[in-house]
Specification:
Elements: E1 2-7, H1 12-21, E2 29-34, H2 37-44, E3 50-55, H3 62-74, E4 77-83, H4 98-119, E5 128-132, H5 145-164, E6 171-175, E7 195-197, H6 206-218, E8 223-224, H7 228-239, H8 242-251, E9 253-255
Parallel strand pairs: 1-2, 1-4, 2-3, 4-5, 5-6, 6-8
Antiparallel strand pairs: 7-9
């Protein structure tokens, strides 16, 4: 059985990956992973492939045991693994509770690595792993510090894994978009903190980010970046001192009352 596994499939970029990967006629099933079962059920009605709904809360350790048990029982071949679960919260270290900061690390880092490790044994030559990074990986971001740091981990982890799995013919790509029009901003808490961006610009569509990512995956690229603005960020982060970039970033923030 040839499958794709997509985490964070209930909304945003994860949902868009499901819609576009569904066009691959070689898949027997798409496994949709997220907490909100009702969202996954609604999405399944839009897909042509057979869908398996795997309702898991990836902040709970038992979720990984459940997924591992399901894979052992079914013994599929995984053609695509998309790790799109994650969230971010904006604010300085005093404005975001320690609990929320640890949840960002648990979901954006620990869950991603756990699922990747669980799935690799079921992948063969030609399989692809897609990990969601962010344009925030290019430099440190004050007031977005934990989120940006988790995504920086994902970038380095993914690019290293890309080299490790080359001999096996398994491609690993980190996708690093800028601001994407999704529900992500419903959870950033930017209205309740002292500093937040004056404007989320330029905003791009998830459809375009995913289309570019899948194109880059086919080319076995380790890094996928969509849009001229984000590409410019990537280049400037290599040229300018991070101290200067952080000052520029702070100049793009507004002070809330």
């Amino acid at each position: 059985m040839n499958i794709a596994i997509i985490t964070g499939a209930s909304s945003g970029i994860g949902r868009e990956f499901a819609l576009q990967i569904d066009k691959n006629n070689s898949l027997d099933e798409i496994w949709l992973v997220a907490r909100r079962r009702e969202r996954l059920e609604a999405l399944s009605k839009e897909l042509r492939a057979k869908v398996r709904i795997v309702s898991l809360d990836l902040l709970k350790p038992e979720s990984f045991t459940d997924l591992e048990g399901l894979l052992k029982a079914e013994s599929p071949q995984i053609s695509y693994l998309v790790n799109a679960s994650g969230f971010g919260a904006m604010g300085d270290w005093r404005e975001i509770s320690n609990e929320v900061q640890m949840q960002m690390i648990d979901l954006n880092v620990k869950a991603l690595v756990s699922i990747t490790n669980i799935c690799i044994p079921y992948m063969k030559k030609g399989s692809s792993i897609i990990e969601m990074g962010s344009a925030s990986v290019f430099n440190p971001l004050p007031y977005f510090n934990v989120y940006a740091s988790t995504k920086s981990f994902v970038r380095h982890y993914t690019r290293a894994l890309h080299e490790e799995l080359k001999p096996d013919g398994i491609n690993v790509t980190v996708v690093c978009p800028g601001w994407v029009r999704t529900e992500f901003f419903d959870h950033t808490n930017d209205d309740n903190v002292r500093y937040s961006p004056k404007k989320y610009s330029p905003m791009v569509e998830a459809t375009d980010v995913v289309r570019r990512a899948l194109r880059d995956v086919k080319k076995n690229k380790a890094l996928s970046i969509y849009g001229a603005f984000t590409k410019m960020q990537h280049i400037l982060a290599k040229i300018l001192p991070h101290s200067l970039i952080m000052r520029i970033w702070k100049g793009m923030l507004k002070e809330n009352e």
